[in-house]
Design brief:
Blueprint: E1 2-10, E2 13-23, H1 30-42, E3 48-57, E4 60-71, E5 74-85, E6 88-97, H2 101-113, H3 120-123, H4 141-145
Antiparallel strand pairs: 1-2, 2-6, 3-4, 4-5, 5-6
């Protein structure tokens, strides 16, 4: 897992955007991958599924899951955005205090929309060569500054 952006420290917590890639099983889609990863998420203290659905942010198409859980005495909300590109799934996770998520959701969505993984067909969810694991090439700096706004 790689930290892509962090907000300022607020009452002992810093909002963040993290990124990880993982190979897909043959024929697996982002929703199927998300279902496979659900078991690990459910192990969090007081885990709660809020929603999950296909989502588009700008030209980036994927699958969005919203969850909440307890960590270090705080109720946290997470937006997990799963994107298929070049035969791997790229997971972008925005983490925020649950009570602040509504105020910062648009920031998370702008961050998701600014992701550029390379080729146009990858953004449309098309398969690419297996084994390639590209990193995000660019996230607009103006979005990084406003993550905790």
């Amino acid at each position: 897992t790689q930290s892509v952006a962090q907000g300022p420290m607020e009452d002992g917590f810093r909002s963040s955007l993290t990124y990880v890639t993982e190979p897909l099983k043959a024929g697996e889609t982002p929703p199927q991958y998300a279902a496979r990863m659900l078991g690990a998420l459910k192990s969090a203290e007081q885990f709660q599924m809020v929603s999950e659905k296909p989502a588009n942010f700008g030209k980036v198409k994927g699958f969005l899951r919203e969850t909440t859980h307890q960590a270090r005495g705080m109720k946290l909300a997470q937006l997990h955005f799963y994107v298929l590109a070049n035969g791997v799934v790229h997971t972008f996770t925005f983490t925020q205090r649950a009570e602040r998520l509504a105020a910062t959701r648009q920031v998370a969505e702008k961050l998701f929309a600014s992701v550029n993984l390379g080729g146009g067909s990858a953004m449309a969810g098309g398969p690419g060569p297996m084994g390639m694991r590209p990193k995000p090439k660019f996230i607009e700096p103006r979005h990084l500054r406003i993550i905790a706004a």
